[in-house]
Design goal:
The protein is an alpha+beta fold and 174 residues long. It has helices at residues 17-33, 41-48, 56-71, 131-155, and strands spanning 87-94, 105-112, 115-123, 165-167. It contains four helices and four strands; from the N terminus they run αααβββαβ. Helix 1 packs antiparallel against helix 2 (41-48).
């Protein structure tokens, strides 16, 4: 999705009933596809917000995702068989990124060595009055996922000795 594109609930003309149901099916299939294609997670999260009342701009954005997927069929998750077994997480957010609700959008990606194993893009449930507080909430969400993955690695007897690293770009939240 183009970075400058911001979808809104009332951006264009509404789709007809037939087009709206096909939009919902398409976004549902894209949601399923995010299990193996983390590169489309954010845009699918954006498109899924408008499933109740889709507009033509939303449909055009969904078709743009399909064109992107068609042009990059070999892209997906690649798990390496060698490398260090250290968890590294990158957390970021778009403060007040949702134009309709002004909620921030959290995103993180977690690597085991050099292999991506977990990712998420989600709108926060509350409106934060400062970017530091919103970034802190994003760090909390990422830390919970890191802890869950640490427990899974311990339960499956994967040997790792070093603590997880969490990267953040907001100095006040750190």
């Amino acid at each position: 999705m183009d970075y400058s594109t911001h979808l809104q609930a009332t951006s264009n003309t509404p789709l007809s009933d037939v087009s709206a149901s096909s939009y919902r099916r398409l976004v549902g299939r894209l949601i399923y596809l995010t299990n193996t294609r983390p590169d489309i997670t954010h845009v699918v999260q954006q498109l899924s917000q408008f499933m109740a009342h889709p507009m033509t701009a939303h449909s055009q954005a969904a078709f743009r995702v399909l064109r992107y997927l068609k042009s990059s069929p070999g892209s997906g998750i690649f798990l390496l068989t060698h490398g260090d077994l250290r968890l590294k997480a990158f957390s970021d957010l778009d403060w007040a990124g949702c134009r309709d609700s002004r909620c921030s959008i959290t995103g993180f990606s977690i690597f085991l060595g050099n292999s991506l194993i977990s990712w998420r893009s989600k709108k926060q449930t509350t409106v934060s009055r400062s970017s530091s507080k919103a970034e802190y909430c994003a760090l909390v969400s990422t830390t919970c996922e890191l802890q869950r993955l640490t427990y899974i690695l311990k339960d499956t007897h994967v040997p790792f000795v070093q603590l997880a690293i969490l990267y953040c770009d907001n100095n006040s939240a750190i």
